Amino acid sequence: TQVTEKLEEAVMIWIKQIKQVLVESEQMRREADDIGPSAELEYWKSRMSSFNSLLDEIKSSRVKKIISILQAARSKTLKQWKELDGNITIAANEAKDNVRYLYTLDKFFGPLAKASPVTMMEQVPSLMNTVCMIYCTSPYYNTSECMTSLLLKITNQMINTCKTYLCEG
Fold this sequence. Notes:
Blueprint: H1 2-26, H2 38-58, H3 61-72, H4 77-114, H5 117-137, H6 144-168
Helix pairs in contact: 1-3, 1-4, 2-4, 4-5, 4-6, 5-6
């Protein structure tokens, strides 16, 4: 029972740490007003990396051994652990899926930043079709919050490109 108690203490510390990671991941992002769409991709890549590292740790043999010992001891901490494990898996899947969809837009980000207003406008129909495809098919990124954030960043990039063009001309 002493071993079980020590292992439960360790798991409770992990639970507290994982909850903190999840809470922080759900907080509002503070971003510059003129940030472009490539920042959206970078955000989700970073989030994917963080959650995948956490998943790797949770799936490690050391953690699995501790969990199996606590299962044999019928520990009450496992209910919380399983719930958090599921939440981390969902968050990792969301980030991975969002990165995959946002990569389909990556080919537009360079031309959007470097083009003249005329050539930039030639890209807009294809860009909007791709955004529409993401909205229609992504299981996670099709919320109004995600779409608004993405479209705002695309608009910011277009405005910055036009400002640069005007200042150079």
